[in-house]
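quick one, 346 residues, struct below
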Amino acid sequence: MGFKGLFESGQGFTMTDVEGKLVPERGRMDVEGAFTHVSSSQVNVAYKSTHVINYKRTRAEIGQALRKKPNYLHYDLVDKHRSSPLQKGTDNITVETDVKAPRDYRFIMPEFMPRPHFEYRDRVLEKLERRDMLRRRTVINIPEFYVGSIMAVTVSDPFAPNKKNRFLGICIDRGGHGLKAYFVLRNVVDGLGVEIFYQMYSPTLHSIEVIRLEKRLDDRLYYLRNCPLEHSTFSFDMEPIALPRGAQVPVNTLKLKLNPKPWDERWERQDLKGIEPIELTPKMIKGIQKVHNASATPWKKHDLMLHYRSKVNEEEEETIMAEVYKENQLLESMRKTSKATLKKKK
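---
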């Protein structure tokens, strides 16, 4: 019968308390984890002070012996600590249980959406990441922003004079899922284009400010690298421009003109709406047709399973967004109550 079986059966056996650890009299665990058979006399010789406790019947006696230890924390205290409010004034906060997120909420926080490819999905990992992301949002305020918004980010920098560094620029890319969410800012410093990659939930971020909230016609603005520098130049002392409450996010329909070649990418082969039409040469047209013929898959539009596996179903999407919306609603109410208490103290 094993060690666990002796506990469950209630048969008599002897335990020896050696340096605060319960060790069976028949043997003890060595450093490597192997069970070495020794007698009680050998244990008494090796350790001068030993205390023998006999457990014969129930587990209640085991619990009583454990409670005598100075470092033992009773389960009632643990439950009381877990159920205690984290902040004063949170008892009066009421949040609806059946909360439905707004229809376009997934575009405000796209990083909470899981990966659309089912072969890379892990629902337990997604749940844990969402919990960590919501906890991180209690420390730092991550506002609503889109590609094309002008933002300012403050991060910790050990080489800066005040250990902080602030960078302002236009958001040219945003992506990633879960804790791997990221965004890229671009600005021109001393006549050179500078792009900084930020991890959205990195602990080095101190603050994220939205200077001007707006959208662009494209989801990625990397073609700004081949546009005049004036379209990527923003003053670091730029003051925030607030939108009226309840107003829709404006869309900047500006179309930029590309510089002459060479370019970083073949922009003529991409369906870009934020640049002026490019004068195509016969060589460019031939290259576009070649790429189109190589990547043409007309049969995929009839593959129903491919469509099902390449996106998250609506029911799961609504469940995830409702959970995130509920937690953010609770977080906003906690911030309002904390601000109200601070005003009363002043």
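DSSP finds nine helices and ten strands in the chain.
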